[in-house]
Design a protein that fits this description.
Layout lengths: L1 H7 L27 E4 L5 E6 L6 E8 L13 H8 L11 H8 L9 E4 L4 E8 L3 H16 L5 H17 L3 H13 L14 H6 L2 H11 L5 E7 L3 H12 L23 E7 L5 E8 L10 H25 L8 E8 L6 E9 L4 H18 L3 H20 L6 H14 L6 H11 L5 H11 L5 E8 L9 H7 L29 E7 L4 E6 L4 E6 L7 E8 L7 H11 L12 H7 L5 E7 L3 E8 L4 H13 L5 H15 L6 H13 L12 H5 L3 H11 L7 E6 L3 H12 L23 E6 L6 E10 L4 H25 L7 E7 L5 E10 L4 H18 L3 H18 L3 H14 L9 H7 L2 H11 L5 E6 L3
Parallel strand pairs: 2-6, 7-11, 14-18, 19-23
Antiparallel strand pairs: 1-2, 3-5, 3-6, 4-5, 8-10, 8-11, 9-10, 12-13, 13-14, 15-17, 15-18, 16-17, 20-22, 20-23, 21-22
Helix pairs in contact: 2-8, 4-9, 10-12, 10-15, 11-15, 12-14, 17-23, 19-24, 25-26, 25-27, 25-30, 26-30, 27-29
Length: about 950
C-alpha cells in the first residue's frame, strides 16, 4: 500500500513521453527524465529538478541513510541528538548563527527549516529564496556543514541535552508506556524494538562527547548521503554547486558496514493487551506480517501488482466505511492496508480500528470477518469498477496539475527513491501506464490476493485502551477465539442500487440580475433573483481545483440558551443523515470517480457551507449545495450511529492530561457563561435533541437571499453563470437580513492563576493569557500579530537556547472584530514541573523588555522578511484568497485591504509593536499551569 500511495497520491512530475506502445511486464519503471540524477566519486547521490511552483524558491534536502537502528547500546538517542546539533554550531555558522541567519532571510525555524530522525534515516529540510545567488550559496554551505562540518563543542552539546530531554519528556505518556510493552511482540526479536529514535533518558543525560562524535564520523559520510535540489533554479548551475560543495569529502577508512536489520518470522500468534489510566483512545490492530522481504528492483509487473493491491485495499476499505456509516457502527473508524511496519524490510497486511472502550472484541471480529468474507466470496464486479474509477480519477487530477505542483511533492518522491529505492516515473508515464494496465486487471486477481496475506503464522494482535474501574479487559483466550470465524455464518456482500442523481427534483431556475467586476481584486460579484450574492475569482493557481464557501450572519446566538444547550452537540451530526433520500453510503457510491464535497455548518455567529471540487465536477458541487439547503434527510438512525461513534471517540479523552488541563482551564474562565459546557462527556450526547437541532438547521438555511457564496479557482465563467441561476437563484429566500449578535458573555476578567494537577509523568504545560474587549483597529491587529512572532524569536533564544528549559515555545497575538471587538495574546510552552515558575518568570521578563524598551530592530526585520516571502507565495493560492474574502465579509471590511499587506509590513516599526504591548499586555493576565498529580 505504501508503494501504491507513493505512485498515485504523491507522484507528480514534469512532461515526458507518454507510453505509446504496450508495456512489457519485465521492463524497469523509467526514471522521470526531467530529474537530473547523479553520483559523485565519493558515493554521494544527488537529484536536481527545475520546478517553478512556488516561484523564486528552491527546496534543499539532505538525506542521511542512517538513523537510530545503527546506534550502539551506549549511543541510544544520539542519532536524534546529532540532528539537533546540526543547528547548534557548524564551521561557517558557530553556535546559533545558523538559525539567526535563516530567520533574517525569512526562513522560520520549525515551520520552514526542520529535520527528523527515524529508525533508518535522518533528513534535513531547507527552503531558500532562489532569486538571490548569495542566499542560494549560503544554503549549500549550510547543508554541506550539516553533512560534514558540525562542530560538536562540549559547551553546545551540554546546552542541547536539556532541549532533547524536554523533547523526550513531551513523548512520555500512556501511548509510550503501552508501546514499550507491545513493541517486543509487534517487532518480535528485532533490533527495531530496542532502538526507538528518542533513545534512553539516562544515556541522553550522561553520554560522553566521544559517543556523539563517533556516531557522526561513522555514519555521516558521502556514500550514505543524498542531496536533493528542486525549485526555480538552473539545473546545470545547481549540479556544479553540488560538485563544488561535496566532491572533496571522503568516506572513512575501514568504514562500518551499513547493516540492514530484519524482523524475524514467528509461527505463533502474539497477543498484546495493554491498558493505561491515561489512555485517551481504545484501539485494535491486527497484523499479518509477510514472510519475505519487499522487492527492490521494481518492474512494470510490480507496478501492476501494486495496482491490484491498491484496488483490493480500496474495495475492502469501502466496505469498512459502509459499516462505519451504519446506525450501529462497530468502530469510530477502521481501515486495512498492506504496507511497511516500522522496518523497511518487513511489510504486513494490517487492519486498524478506533473503538468504544468496551467494543474491542466486537471490532476485531468485524475486521476478521470482513477479511474472511473477501477470502470466501470475493468482491463484486461493481466494487471493482468503482475502485478503478476512483484510481483513474485521482491520477487524472494529478496529471492535470502536473505544471502546478509544489516543489515539496517532488522532493518527497526523490527522497523515497534514495532511501527506499522507490521508482520515480513521470506523471505522464504513470497516467498512461495506469490507463493501459487498469482494464487488464480481473476480479479474480484482486480476489486471490487475500489468500497470500491471511495466515496463522506471523500474526500479531494489539489491543490498547484505558484502565479504569468497572472495565474488564479482553483476555488473550478471547482474542484468539475471536480470530476464528464461523464460515457458515458468512454471507456474500450485497450490492445496493446506485442512485442516478444527487437531487430528487429539478430546481426551478432563477436569474442573474446584476454583474459587477472589481478589477483590483479581479473578482466578479453576481446578484441573483432571490437576493443571494455570488462572488467568484477565476485563477490559474491550480488547474483542477475550485474552492467554495457560503456564509450568512446568524448562527446559534439567535436561539435561546436552553435551545443551544439542547442542540449544540446534535448540530454536528446532522449531515450524517445524507440528503435527497440518500444515506452517506449511497452518496459515496454515486460520487465514485467524481471529486466534489460540501460540508454545512452552523457556528455561534454564522451559518454556511464549505467545500471544493474539480472543474469537471463543478455541477455536482452545486447540486450538493442545493440539496443541503433544501433536502437534508431527517434520519434518527443515522444520528444514533453518529452518537455511538462520538461516544467511542470521546469516552476517555479527559483521561489525557493535556485535554483535562484545557477543559479545566476554560471551564474556569467561562464559569459566568451559561452556554459554556466544557468538553463533552459521553452522557451529554444522550440528551442531545436531534429534532430541535434539525429544526434550527432548516431555519438557518431557509433564506438563501441572506447568503454570500464564494467560488475561487479554475472556473468556467459560462458555467458559473448557468449553475448560479439554476442551483443558487432557485433556493428559497426572503428579504430578511440578519446581523451578528453579541450575547455579552465573556471570560473572567482580572488577574488569575490556575494550577491543574493531572498525570503521572513529570510533565507540565504553561499557558499565559491576555485578553479583553477593545475597539477593533486593523493597524493594531497587525502589530499584535507582529508582537507574537517577534516575542517567539526571543522566547526561543532565551527559554530554549540559553536556558535549555523547553523544546518548543511560542507566542501569538490577534484581534477580532466580530461579534465584538476583542484582543487575545498567549504564550505557551511545555516544560519540566520543577522549571515551570522559573520559565514563566523568564517568559514574562522577555515580554517586559519589549514593553519597556521595544523589540530589537533585527527581530522586527526577521518578521518582515518572513511575512513578505509568505505573502508572495500565498497570493498564488486559492485558499488564501478564500480566507481573505470571507474574513472581509465577516468583518464587514473592504477586501481590497489585502492588496496593501506588503505596504503594511514595510511600515510597521518597533514603536508600533511596543505600543500595542504597552496597551494590551500590562493589564490583567491569566497564568495557567498543568502539573503532575501530587
Amino acid at each position: 500500500m505504501k508503494k501504491f500511495r507513493q505512485f498515485f497520491y504523491f507522484l507528480l512530475a514534469t512532461p515526458s513521453l507518454l507510453v505509446a506502445q504496450e508495456l512489457k511486464m519485465d521492463s524497469p519503471i523509467p526514471m522521470d527524465p526531467s530529474v537530473k540524477m547523479g553520483k559523485l566519486k565519493n558515493g554521494l547521490t544527488y537529484y536536481i529538478k527545475k520546478n517553478s511552483k512556488p516561484e523564486n524558491k528552491v527546496v534543499l534536502r539532505l538525506m542521511v541513510n542512517a538513523g537510530s537502528i545503527l546506534e550502539t547500546d551506549e549511543q541510544q538517542g544520539l542519532a536524534h541528538f546529532m540532528e539537533h546539533m546540526c543547528f547548534n554550531g557548524t564551521k561557517r555558522f558557530p553556535k546559533n548563527k545558523l538559525v539567526d541567519y535563516l530567520q533574517s532571510i525569512g526562513v522560520k525555524f520549525g515551520q520552514h527549516l526542520n529535520a527528523y530522525t527515524s529508525f533508518d534515516e535522518t533528513v534535513y529540510f531547507l527552503p531558500i529564496p532562489s532569486d538571490d545567488k548569495e542566499k542560494v550559496e549560503k544554503g549549500f554551505q549550510i547543508i554541506e556543514d550539516w553533512a560534514f562540518n558540525t562542530t560538536l563543542t562540549p559547551e553546545e552539546i551540554d546546552k542541547e541535552r536539556g532541549v532533547v530531554l524536554e523533547e523526550y519528556r513531551l513523548g512520555l505518556g500512556a501511548d509510550k508506556r503501552m508501546m514499550g510493552r507491545y513493541m517486543p511482540k509487534m517487532m518480535y526479536n528485532s533490533h527495531y524494538a530496542k532502538r526507538l529514535p528518542i533513545g534512553q533518558k539516562e544515556i541522553l543525560e550522561n553520554f560522553t562527547y566521544d559517543k556523539l562524535t563517533s556516531f557522526y564520523k561513522d555514519w555521516y559520510r558521502p556514500n550514505l548521503m543524498s542531496v536533493v535540489v528542486v525549485g526555480d533554479i538552473d539545473v546545470a548551475e545547481m549540479e556544479q554547486k553540488i560538485k563544488d560543495h561535496f566532491s572533496s569529502y571522503k568516506n572513512p577508512k575501514n568504514e562500518k558496514q551499513r547493516k540492514v536489520f530484519d524482523v524475524p518470522n514467528h509461527k505463533e500468534t502474539f497477543v498484546a493487551i495493554e491498558s493505561d489510566k491515561e489512555a485517551a483512545f481504545t484501539q485494535v490492530q491486527l497484523l499479518y506480517k509477510d514472510k519475505s522481504e519487499p522487492k527492490k528492483n521494481v518492474t512494470v509487473k510490480d507496478f501492476r501488482d501494486e495496482l491490484i493491491d491498491g484496488l483490493f485495499t480500496t474495495m475492502l476499505n469501502n466496505r469498512l466505511e459502509e459499516k462505519q456509516n451504519s446506525p450501529t457502527p462497530p468502530f469510530t473508524f477502521g481501515y486495512t492496508y498492506h504496507g511497511e511496519t516500522w522496518a523497511r524490510t518487513k511489510k504486513a497486511f494490517q487492519s486498524f480500528a478506533m473503538v468504544g472502550q468496551d467494543k474491542q472484541l466486537d471490532a476485531l471480529k468485524v475486521l476478521v470477518e470482513e477479511n474472511e468474507r473477501v477470502k470466501k466470496f470475493g468482491f463484486t464486479e461493481g466494487e471493482l469498477e468503482r475502485a478503478k474509477a476512483e484510481f483513474l480519477n485521482q491520477i487524472e487530477r494529478q496529471y492535470n496539475e502536473r505544471d502546478k505542483t509544489e516543489s515539496d511533492r517532488f522532493v518527497n518522491n526523490l527522497q523515497r527513491n534514495f532511501l527506499d529505492q522507490e521508482p520515480v516515473p513521470s506523471i505522464e508515464w504513470t497516467f498512461a501506464a495506469l490507463k493501459q494496465l487498469l482494464p487488464s486487471i480481473s476480479l479474480k486477481e484482486t480476489n486471490d490476493l487475500i489468500a497470500t496475506y491471511i495466515k496463522d503464522e506471523n500474526r500479531v494482535v494489539i489491543l490498547t485502551g484505558p484502565e479504569k474501574e468497572g472495565l474488564d479487559l479482553p483476555t488473550e483466550k478471547q482474542v484468539l477465539e475471536t480470530l476464528k470465524v464461523d464460515q457458515k455464518t458468512l454471507e456474500p456482500y450485497k450490492e445496493t442500487a446506485i442512485a442516478t442523481s444527487l437531487l430528487r427534483k429539478e430546481p426551478v431556475k432563477g436569474k442573474v440580475i446584476k454583474t459587477e467586476k472589481n478589477d483590483k481584486l479581479d473578482i466578479t460579484t453576481l446578484t441573483l433573483s432571490n437576493g443571494a450574492t455570488v462572488v467568484y475569482k477565476k485563477t490559474d493557481f491550480k488547474n483542477d481545483e475550485i474552492q467554495f464557501q457560503a456564509l450568512s450572519f446568524g448562527g446559534t446566538n439567535l436561539v435561546s440558551n436552553e435551545e443551544y444547550l439542547k442542540t449544540s452537540l446534535a448540530m454536528y451530526g446532522l449531515s450524517e443523515a445524507g440528503f435527497s433520500g440518500m444515506n452517506k453510503n449511497d452518496i459515496n457510491k454515486f460520487m465514485t470517480g467524481k471529486i466534489a464535497r460540501v460540508n454545512p455548518f452552523v457556528s455561534s455567529t454564522s451559518e454556511g457551507m464549505n467545500g471544493s471540487c474539480t472543474p469537471k465536477d463543478f455541477e455536482y458541487l452545486m447540486q450538493m449545495i442545493y440539496a443541503y439547503f433544501t433536502d437534508l434527510n431527517f434520519d434518527k438512525e443515522a444520528f444514533t450511529g453518529y452518537v455511538a461513534k462520538q461516544k467511542g471517540f470521546m469516552s476517555n479523552l479527559l483521561s489525557q492530561p493535556s485535554t483535562y488541563f484545557s477543559n479545566e482551564l476554560y471551564t474556569y474562565l467561562n464559569k459566568e457563561n451559561p452556554r459554556y459546557k466544557g468538553f463533552p462527556k459521553p452522557e451529554d450526547y444522550d440528551s442531545a435533541d436531534y429534532d430541535l437541532a434539525y429544526k434550527i438547521y432548516k431555519e438557518r438555511f431557509s433564506n438563501a437571499g441572506d447568503f454570500n457564496f464564494y467560488f475561487i479557482g479554475n472556473i468556467d465563467e459560462a458555467k458559473i453563470l448557468e449553475y448560479a441561476a439554476l442551483y443558487i437563484a432557485s433556493l428559497p429566500s426572503s428579504k430578511n437580513k440578519e446581523k451578528m449578535v453579541d450575547l455579552g458573555y465573556r471570560m473572567l476578567k482580572g488577574e488569575h492563576k490556575k494550577v491543574v494537577n493531572k498525570g503521572k509523568d513529570p510533565k507540565s504545560t504553561v499557558n499565559i493569557l491576555f485578553y479583553g474587549d477593545t475597539k477593533y483597529d486593523s493597524e493594531e491587529a497587525f502589530a499584535l500579530k507582529a508582537l507574537g512572532d517577534v516575542l517567539t524569536i526571543k522566547l526561543v533564544e532565551e527559554l530554549r537556547e540559553n536556558e535549555s528549559g523547553v523544546y518548543g515555545v511560542g507566542a501569538r497575538g490577534s484581534m477580532s472584530k466580530t461579534p465584538y471587538g476583542s484582543y487575545n495574546f498567549s504564550i505557551n510552552f511545555p516544560c519540566g514541573p520543577e522549571n515551570a515558575e522559573t520559565l514563566i518568570a523568564s517568559a514574562l521578563r522577555e515580554l517586559n523588555k519589549i514593553i519597556e524598551k521595544g523589540p530589537e530592530q533585527k527581530d522586527v526585520d526577521k518578521f518582515k522578511e518572513t511575512e513578505k516571502l509568505d505573502y508572495k507565495e500565498k497570493m498564488k493560492e486559492n485558499r488564501f484568497w478564500m480566507n481573505n474574502l470571507t474574513k472581509s465579509y465577516l468583518n464587514e471590511s473592504n477586501p481590497e485591504e489585502m492588496l496593501n499587506y506588503l505596504d503594511q509590513v514595510s511600515k510597521i516599526t518597533t514603536k508600533d509593536i511596543q505600543a500595542v504591548a504597552k496597551k494590551y499586555l500590562t493589564k490583567d493576565k491569566v497564568v495557567a499551569v498543568l502539573m503532575p498529580e501530587e
